[in-house]
Amino acid sequence: MSFRAFIALDLSPEALAAVEAEQVPLRAAITRQGVRFVRPDKIHLTLLFLGQLDEERLPELADALQQGISGLKPPRLRVGGIGAFPTIQRPKTIWLGVEEEGLGELQSAVATAAKPFAELRDDKPYRPHLTLARVSPGSKAVGFLIQPLVARLPAGTEWCPSEVVVYESTPGGDYLERSRVTIPV
Description:
single chain; globular
């Protein structure tokens, strides 16, 4: 049996609280605008989307990740300011940026270690972000309404994740933890 998988970093409780605080002005600005906010328990920092992963290969993936990240230090991450994909004027995804030290090295090591397991490899440059909300097509006012929030100072909460997590993305939209790998100190 296989499942849809991705690899991510969890947020510290303090970082998650900062992210939730950033959702408050967004909710106030864009209520009833065709926007679906991400529940706090689903917010994470994705490192790599794998696509379908055979259940029996999960231990092999965990071993490959552990070997791939050995010798790395945990990255120092900081919650950044609000942005959007593809643009702030026509957003489909509203996010908080992540300022980082050492994340690029960790993400690259994870991508290399997981390459044999990645059915759907994404070759776009990695842009660390925390998804806050998704915008329905045709919600034209959202970009205009959130532009004043982009200029605000970022939340600024730092955290150092100590584990890389393999998650299953279920058809119902839930994320189930399937494996954890410790980032060496």
